[in-house]
Amino acid sequence: MLVLAALWAASCFAAWPQTPQKPTQQKNVRPVSTRGQQIFASTCATCHGLDGRGAERAPNIADNPRVQRLSDLQIVHIIENGIPGSAMPAFHALATSDVTAVVAYLRTLQGTRQTLKLPGDPVRGETIFFGKAGCSSCHMIAGKGGFIASDLSTYARTHTVEEIRSAITDPAPASDRQARMVTATTRGGEKVVGRIRNEDNFSLQLQTLDGTFHFVTKSDLEALEYNSQPLMPSDYGSTLPPDELNDVVSYLIKVAGANASGNPKRADEWED
């Protein structure tokens, strides 16, 4: 079952800093989930071993720091949806309560209760996202916001706190043409400012900030100019103080949790 995190972590989280995990106090260790143990033994152990420390068909998921760094929510998502292009299948037949029990039992195998800690206040983060930081002018989240950049509703489900923060403070460089807007000028003098969504040898499809798509044939183009600055501001590390940056990260985590379970935890319910 859980060809899970090790394969996923290796491909998606190779850049994670390898910080040793601090031992957890006994009071934070979850009680063994008998139900989770039974499901793990019948579904996961064939590949990962009864102790989670790997077998011929799958790697160690008990002692791997990268796996331990995944939040419970991230592991639940992998179990339910699998890993495309890998041997890890999607276990749609398992009830949500069964998946949760498996994750709880995996934590006992890891000897840790490693849940994601919200770094800030999601309520303030929402205000910053739709206000001061201007994120919503390009990004949509939970059905609100712009069209021109990626939808962030589930982004935090598959990214760590460090990765989310880094994506905000150290975005794609200006040399990345896909990260920039373009101005297309036709031979008739019409100008369209947008982001290239599709391109072939003969045409361009651009999307403007209001979400409208425009089809332009290259034979009708007078000029195509890339803006010098990328869509994503590169100065959030200086314009947003650390506490506000943490608030935005916290908001993204909360929304991703709501989309996954419909019942996100409050900030004071998340634990180390």
List the helices and strands and how they pair.
Layout: H1 4-12, H2 34-48, H3 65-69, H4 72-81, H5 96-110, H6 122-130, E1 140-141, E2 144-145, H7 161-169, E3 180-186, E4 191-199, E5 203-207, E6 213-217, E7 221-230, H8 236-239, H9 242-261
Antiparallel strand pairs: 1-2, 3-4, 3-7, 4-5, 5-6
What is the structure about, briefly put?
By secondary structure, the protein is α+β, with helices and mostly antiparallel strands. It has nine helices and seven strands; from the N terminus they run ααααααββαβββββαα. It has a five-stranded antiparallel beta sheet, with no helix packed on it. A two-stranded antiparallel ribbon has the order 1-2.
What is the beta-strand fraction? 5-15%
Give the helix/strand class.
Answer: alpha+beta
Instruction: Calculate the mean pLDDT score and round it.
Output: 76
Largest sheet entry: 5 strands, antiparallel
The radius of gyration computed from the alpha-carbon positions, rounded to a whole number of angstroms, is 22 Å
Helix share bin: 25-40%
Shape: elongated
Description:
This protein is α+β, with helices and mostly antiparallel strands. The chain is 35% helix and 15% strand. Helix 6 crosses helix 9. The N terminus and C terminus are likely disordered.
Features of this protein?
272 residues, alpha+beta, 5-stranded antiparallel β-sheet, two-stranded antiparallel sheet, 9 helices, 7 strands, elongated, disordered N terminus, disordered C terminus
